[in-house]
Amino acid sequence: MKTLITRDELYEKLYAGLVNFMIGDALGAPIELLHYKLIDRVYGKYGIKGLVRPIPGHPAKKLKPWSVTDDTRGLILTINTILKYDRPSVNEYTSELIAWAKKERIFEVYYYGPSTKYAIKRLNEGASVEEAGAKGETCGGPIRSIPAGIFNPLKPKVAAEEAILYCKITHGTSVALSAAAAIASFVSLLYTNDIDLALKSAIEFAKWGFTKGKLTPAPSVSERIKLAVKIMKKTKDPYKGARRLHDIIGIGLHSSEAIPIALGIFCKIPDRPKETIFIALNMGGDTDSIAAIVGLLTGIYSGKVADKNYARQVLENNEIDLESIVNSMVKVISKRI
User: What superfamily does domain 7-332 belong to in CATH?
Assistant: First the structure.
């Protein structure tokens, strides 16, 4: 098992992971929430092979090509907050979240989810963190918590604890915190390139995270992680396997769907980011979120950028200075290793 990582390797993995996340987000936006049968009908069998135009009436018609959505913007929020405070408190993160929501005009933009909008509204009304996050079960909070794993290599418990802090403000339910702890601990150990170890940790901390939030009736994240990995392993064609995840586990909007599905797809093909992203895209459902997560996981694991042209397009069109962000992250993470 690899336990040490150089600064150059760290930069390579971070850059690949983050740009692949953005690529998956941007490619998925025009087909978000389409059933895979409709994707086949409009774009051909497993028809997403690059950036496509949204169908008439799709909300992504409002976006410029290669635009990222709430997944990328939320991830960058957490990264910038960590860079600012190192280990932000709940109050510090909450303040940054409220300021970010105002700047992003989240109540006017279609792709921000109802859980985040509800929580921000309640926080602005003076509600406590516990009250604000009491209804959040969707995957937005867990995705926004992924940097807890990125910034804590080889420290899955620390990663899970920090993920709870970032997630609970908007998504404070047992299922959302279970998913947040699972994905953060998984990413933390992904630096070792030992997928089995990372998967074992994700299952363990999914159970632990479940005990930290408001109990709500929802499927088990840990059991669904096991199921998703099993389904993908047993299905020879990964494109068919991903669609089985859609049919059996769900479309990815819920925390008990998005994180298990992403881990299942990643574990099938962990070292070919472009292919893995397109498997997620052609699954249908919450395409941008699933593709973004698997893009990040494959990038951190392999250090490979999915497509250099895609990377240039997404960074230029969204005016993101990823080199500066990653250089700042390397300095902070190097002190924590």
Answer: ADP-ribosylation/Crystallin J1 (1.10.4080.10)
CA 173 to chain centre: 18
Say how many residues make up the chain: 337
Cβ-count burial of 200 within 10 angstroms (0-12 exposed, 13-18 middle, 19+ buried)? Answer: middle
| Sign of the four-CA dihedral 146, 151, 154, 157 | negative
CB of 292 closer than 8 Å to CB of 111: no
pLDDT tens-digit profile of 106-141? 999 999 999 999 999 999 999 999 999 999 999 999
**Residue 181 and residue 200: Cα distance in Å, rounded?**
13
Q: Please, are residues 201 and 186 in contact by the beta-carbon 8 Å criterion?
A: yes
CA-derived radius of gyration, the chain: 18
CA distance 257 to 68: 21
Separation of alpha carbons 93 and 81, rounded Å? 7
